[in-house]
Design a protein that fits this description.
Layout lengths: L2 E10 L3 H9 L5 H4 L4 E8 L7 E7 L5 E9 L5 E6 L5 E8 L5 E10 L3 H30 L2
Antiparallel strand pairs: 1-7, 2-3, 3-4, 4-5, 5-6, 6-7
Helix pairs in contact: 1-3
Length: about 150
Amino acid sequence: MAQVEATTERVVAADPETVFDTLADYSGTRAKLLPEHFSEYEVREGGDGEGTLVHWKLQATSKRVRDCLLEVTEPSDGELVEKDRNSSMVTTWRVTPAGEGTSRVVVTTVWNGAGGIGGFFERTFAPKGLARIYDAVLAKLAAEVEK
């Protein structure tokens, strides 16, 4: 099983603290940032960054739906890590300054991929698909914080 990784990033016209706080607001803003690929969104514990437990279903393709139960940690300033209790999937959000009043947001998801021919296709196509999904999240994030 090879590790599969999908990364996307965006520069947002808002300060890093505002951007991070918006991403970490699972009980409020975060649900508004999710595109149609996400369903059954529910905060089960916490709701603001570290200590949050959040559930959603992620429909990556017409046939592939992941039931995600994510534990949120903040291992360092500007970093949110979502670890899925139901799989090996880990998503890391990093928010760093990108100049006067702007922020760079990088989202990286890694998981243990399948073996064999299925794994080949997963490693080939899944990162592009997931990057498109997270690109949509980042576009909504930008629209939210650049108001």
